[in-house]
Structures are given as C-alpha cells and as structure tokens.
From TrEMBL:
UniProt KW Transmembrane helix keyword: yes
Pfam families according to UniProt: Ctr
Keywords for this protein: Copper, Copper transport, Ion transport, Membrane, Transmembrane, Transmembrane helix, Transport
Coiled-coil regions listed: none
The gene coding this protein: LOC101244986
Family per record: Belongs to the copper transporter (Ctr) (TC 1.A.56) family. SLC31A subfamily.
This protein's name: Copper transport protein
Length: 141
C-alpha cells in the first residue's frame, strides 16, 4: 500500500541543518536548569559571564525584597493615608508591575533565579510582613 501523494515521488522536503535552526530560534529551556548561561527578561542578558549572572541574581533578589516591602510596609501604609488615591494607585501599579517582572524572570526556568526570588520574598516577609499579622505577639512592644 503506497501512501505517497501523487507527484511527490515519495521524498520529504529537505530539513534545515540543526545548527542553523538552533541559532535562528535561540535556546529556550522548558524545564528547570542550573547554569550561569541564561537569559533573564532581556535577550542576551546576563550573557555568559559569571559576574553578570551574579549581578542579575542580586537584582532579582532586591526586586523581590522590594515587592514584599511595598506589600507589607506599615511605614508606607501610614504615609500613604495622607495622599490621594492617585499616588496609592501608582504605588499599587508599581508593585504589580515588579511582581509580574519577577514572574517573567522565573519563567527563564533558571534554578538560581527561582531560588533568589523565593529567598527575597521570604526574607521580605520576615523583615516587613510578619509584624502585620494581628496574631503575632513577637512584634508587639
């Protein structure tokens, strides 16, 4: 039984070389990986240098810490009560934008990025959020 289409002669079209396809599509990970050779948020950043990868991890950590501060800071909430809704809306938009950037950074599937985001949020909650819980006696003076 011959399943070839008429006029095709049974030949499949030639496929492009594998190296060319990898260069044109880029290397996109769809599973967690551990490597300093990652792209986080921007094409080519942080690149292949270890120092730039460490800098990227520090930036991601600080941003996740800042998101927790924006979410839980009593100082910010007290100061914001004097401002109008426009400033509160801007701060909320900033918090959401940074949270989405962190989500996109995690979608690089780099284990180091995942660890520093979780560590930043955890430390941020420890520093800023645990005293907002009304059941916590450890923070009350």
């Amino acid at each position: 039984m011959d399943h070839d289409m008429p006029g095709m002669g049974g030949m499949s079209p030639p496929s492009p070389p594998q190296d060319h396809m990898m260069m044109s599509m880029g290397l996109t990970h769809m599973t967690f990986f551990w490597s300093k050779n990652a792209e986080i948020l921007f094409s080519g950043w942080p690149g292949t240098r270890t120092g730039m990868y460490v800098l990227a991890l520090i930036i991601v950590f600080v941003v996740s810490l800042f998101v927790e501060w924006l979410s839980n800071s009593n100082y910010l909430k007290d100061k914001m009560s004097n401002y109008n809704g426009l400033v509160k809306t801007f701060v909320h938009g900033l918090k959401i934008a940074l949270a989405y950037l962190l989500m996109l950074a995690i979608m690089s599937f780099n284990v180091g990025v995942f660890i520093v985001v979780v560590a930043g949020h955890t430390l941020g909650y420890f520093l800023f959020g645990r005293c907002n819980n009304s059941e916590s006696n450890a923070c009350q003076a």
